[in-house]
Amino acid sequence: MKNSRIFDMLLGLAFVVIGIMAVNRPATTLGFLVFFFGVLAIVRGITAIVGLGAMTGQSSRGFRIVLGVFDIIIGVMFLSNMIRGALFLGVMFAVWFLMESIGHLFLTARFNQSKGFMKIIILLFDILCMILAVMLLFNPIIATLTLPKLVGFSAMSFGFVLIIHGFSHQE
Q1: Which of 3, 16, 49, 113 has a 20 to 30 A CA-CA distance from 41?
Q2: Quick one: CA torsion of 151, 134, 161, 115, rounded to 10 degrees?
């Protein structure tokens, strides 16, 4: 249990530091995100196609090829047109933030070890992340321009939740 506490606190601290860096360098952050997801999509596509030997059913082989080619196309689009990639990231991150916030709300509901005050703090950070997600969904162009700041603040919020979670574990 002690290792889990330390891991939560260190991971939370890492999220806070990354969040601060993202807020302070928005253009670099956005460029890095587009590049990172472009490369990630290409690598995922290649591994989906190359990993066909591990697939046992014939029906899934065609599906894996289609998904692999789709991932490679998405990755090339990200890398060849940074603006289009950045706009797509706005929508992608909105969905991700929303899913993470919902997941954290379920975690908080099951989090019986903490006292009422700790639950309220965690709920406030989760609600903040949900508000950011809704903002991203309803205004993708503006969200893309502010995405590095939103990513930074969300990373800091998730970091604080993990740090609080680490401090509130019972031995």
Answers
A1: 16
A2: 170
